[in-house]
Amino acid sequence: VSMPLKRAGMSSARAFWYGQLSGMVEPLGGLIGAAAVTIAEPVLPYFLSLAAGGVSMPLKRAGMSSARAFWYGQLSGMVEPLGGLIGAAAVTIAEPVLPYFLSLAAG
Question: How confident is the model over 51-90, as pLDDT tens digits?
């Protein structure tokens, strides 16, 4: 910030001062960001799962339309919820066990 101001004809001291002032907002932004993370941390898993659901819905629709073309939709309509339940069970089972296996892998 200081160099363009100096080239534009401003005095060195004044250009330096404006350069320092322009950097004063960064610590303030850091504090606001840290406060936002502290406030949002308890609900972060819910927001992430909402985002994952939003991403997976178009994929499910595309998969369902492809499955309907091959299997007339009945079998795929029954298998999709079953796959979701298996995935949820796998995550639920793996969550408490995963840190143990990671500690073993780290040695």
Answer: 777 777 676 666 666 666 665 556 666 666 777 778 778 8
pLDDT of residue 63: 65
Supply the pTM of this predicted model.
0.36
Instruction: DSSP letter for 11, please.
Output: -
Give dist(CA 94, CA 72) in Å, integer.
34
- Cα 45 to Cα 93: distance, rounded to the nearest angstrom: 17
Of 5, 31, 8, 30, whose CA–CA distance to 19 is shortest? 5
Q: The tokens of 55 are what?
A: 């991403």
Q: How far is CA 104 from CA 88, 92, 95, 98, 100, in A?
A: 25, 20, 15, 10, 6
Note the maximum CA span of the chain: 77
